[in-house]
Amino acid sequence: MRFDTIIIGGGLAGLTAGIRLQEEGRRTAIVSSGQSALHFFSGSFESLKDCPEAEELFDRAGVRLHNLPGSRRLLPGGAFREAVLSLGDVSLLPGEGPIGKKALIVSFNGYHDFFPELLAGALEKDGTPSIQGIVEMEELAALRKSPTEMRSVNIARVLDKCPDKFVQKVKELLADGVDTVILPQVFGLDGDEVPRAISEGLAPLKVIFVGTLPPSVPGIRTQNMLRRRYERLGGTFIIGDSVVSGAVHEGIVSSVASHNLDTYRLFADNFILCSGSFFSKGLHSSPTAIEEPVFGLDVEFPEDRSLWYEADFFEPQPYMGIGVKADKDLHPSIGGEKVTNLYVAGAILGASKDGKYGTGAGKAIKSALAAANKILSL
Ligand SMILES: Cc1cc2nc3c(=O)[nH]c(=O)nc-3n(C[C@H](O)[C@H](O)[C@H](O)COP(=O)(O)OP(=O)(O)OC[C@H]3O[C@@H](n4cnc5c(N)ncnc54)[C@H](O)[C@@H]3O)c2cc1C
After folding, report:
1. Ligand 1: which residue has its CA nearest to atom 2?
2. Which of 183, 274, 298, 372 could be cross-linked to 13 through a Cys-Cys bond (beta carbons 3.0 to 4.6 Å apart)?
3. Omega cis (within 30) before 215
4. Is the pLDDT of residue 100 over 80?
5. Ligand 1 centroid from CA 38, angstroms
C-alpha cells in the first residue's frame, strides 16, 4: 500500500499531524499499537498558552479549547497551577483570591479515584470553606457491586445518559451559603455537551470540574474525537499494529514493516515518527543505553547512567528530557546521517535546548504541526 505520508503512533502528536495533512488533501495512514498518553490526560496542554492553529484544528474536530491569561486551574491533589490552553470543561479560575464563598465537593460512594479531603484542605488554605456530599443514584448501584467497576469511564457511561437527574441530586446536597460546586471529571465521553449541560443546570452556582485518577474521561474523549475527525477526512487509522522496522537507504526511508502485516510493507514519500516516549515504548532503555526501536535513530543521553535520573523522586527527572535527536526541521539521524524524509514529533523528541516546542502536550501539538507544515511546504 502506498501513501503520501505514514505516521507511526496515533496519540496526540500523530493525530494532530494526520488531521493537518488530511485537511490539505494528503493521503495518509496512522499505524498505532495501542493506548496513548491521552488516556491519562489532565485536560491541560502543558507549556502551551495559546496556539490559534491548534485551536482552530481542534475546533473543527469538535474539541473546544480555551485559556484565560492570568487564571489558575485546580489539580486533583488540591494544588493550584497557572492555567494553560485547556479543554473547554477544564475550569479556569481567577488568578488569586478565594474561588468562592463556600464550596460543595461532590463524590460517589465506593469511588476512590477522586480526593475530596485533599481538595477541601487546599480550598480552606485558599480562603474557601467547603462541605462534602455524596450523590446516591440507583443507576450507579450496578457498578458498585464490584469495586473495580467504580472507575471514571464507567461512571461517565452511566451519568452521560441522565445528566438532569444528576443535577437534581446535587441540588439536594446544597447547603446555605454554597456558591461553588466541585465535581470529578466523569462526564462527557462523547463530547463536552454533558459537562456543559451540568454547568447550565446548576447555574447560577459556579461549577468547577477537577481531574480524577486515570483513566481520564476528557482525555479519552479527545482521543476519540480527533480519531473520528481524522477518519472522516479520509485518513486510514490502523490500530493494534506496531511498526517494527523501516527500510532506510542513503538517508531516505522507502517503506516500513509492521507486526501484523508480516511481509507486506507500507510505502510513502514521507514518514512522521510519533511513537511517544518510554511510557508508549517509543523509547527503550537498558542498563547501558536508550534506544529508538523502529529505525535505530540517534538518541541523546549521558553515558553516565546516574545522570539519567535524580535521586530525589520528587525532583524533575532528567530522563524525561531524553529523546531522539532532531535538526531544526525535525529530521532525525542514524549514526550521524540525516534521514531526509523522516520527521519526529511529540514526546519521542528530546528536550530542545532553545525550548522551541516546550514540554508535555504543548510539545506534541507544536512539533506535530511543524512536521506536517514542513511536509506541506515541500
Ligand atoms: C501518563 C502520562 C500522562 C500525561 N499527562 C499529560 C497532561 O495531562 N498534560 C500534558 O501536557 N502532558 C501530559 N503528558 C505528556 C505527554 O507526553 C503528552 O501530553 C502527549 O500526549 C504525548 O503525545 P504523543 O503523541 O507524542 O505520544 P503518546 O501519547 O505516547 O502516543 C504514542 C503512540 O504511539 C504508539 N506507538 C508506540 N510505538 C509504536 C510503534 N512501533 N508502532 C505503532 N505505534 C506505536 C503508542 O501505542 C501510542 O499510542 C503525559 C504523559 C504521560 C506518559
Report:
1. 37
2. 274
3. yes
4. yes
5. 6
Instruction: Determine which of 108-117, 210-219, 349-358, 364-373 has the lowest per-residue pLDDT on average.
Output: 349-358
Ligand 1 pocket residue status of 36, Cβ below 6 Å = yes
Q: Which CATH number do you get for residue 284? A: 3.50.50.60
Residue 183 pairs in a beta bridge with 209
How many angstroms does the Cα of residue 357 sit away from the middle of ligand 1? 15
Which of 165, 185, 214 is the endpoint of a domain?
214
User: Do the bridges between strand 243-249 and strand 236-239 make them parallel or antiparallel, or are there none, so unpaired?
Assistant: unpaired
C-alpha cell at 98: 478565594
Task: Find out whether 3 and 29 touch, Cβ atoms under 8 Å.
Answer: yes
Neighbouring-strand partners of residue 6: 29, 271
Structural element, H or E, at residue 156 = helix 152-159
Tens digits of residue pLDDT in 182-207: 999 999 999 999 999 999 999 999 99
130 and 250 part of one domain: no
Same domain, 17 and 85: no
Say if ligand 1 is within 6 A of residue 87 CB.
no
pLDDT above 90 (res 352): no
The answer to whether the CB of 218 is under 6 A from ligand 1 is no
> What is the residue type of 348?
I
Region 142-160 average pLDDT: 93
CB of 360 within 6 A of ligand 1: the answer is: yes
CB distance 370 to ligand 1 below 6 Å: no
28 shares its domain with 102: no
Q: Give the model's pLDDT for residue 354.
A: 81
Residues 70 and 190 in one domain: yes
Kindly state whether residues 320 and 244 are assigned to the same domain.
yes
pLDDT greater than 90 at residue 353: no
The label of the residue with cell 465537593 reads: 105
Instruction: Give the Å distance between the CA of 48 and the centre of ligand 1.
Output: 16
Q: Is the C-beta atom of 274 inside 6 A of ligand 1?
A: yes
Q: Which domain holds residue 204?
A: 65-214
Show the cell assigned to 82: 497557572
Q: Indicate whether residue 11 lines ligand 1 (CB < 6 A).
A: yes
Residue 259 has pLDDT above 90, yes or no: yes
The answer as to whether 57 is a domain residue is: no
pTM equals 0.97
Rounded to 5 degrees, what are φ and ψ at 313? -55, -30
Instruction: Report the separation in Å between the CA atom of 349 and the middle of ligand 1, taken as the mean of its atom positions.
Output: 11
Same domain, 190 and 231: no
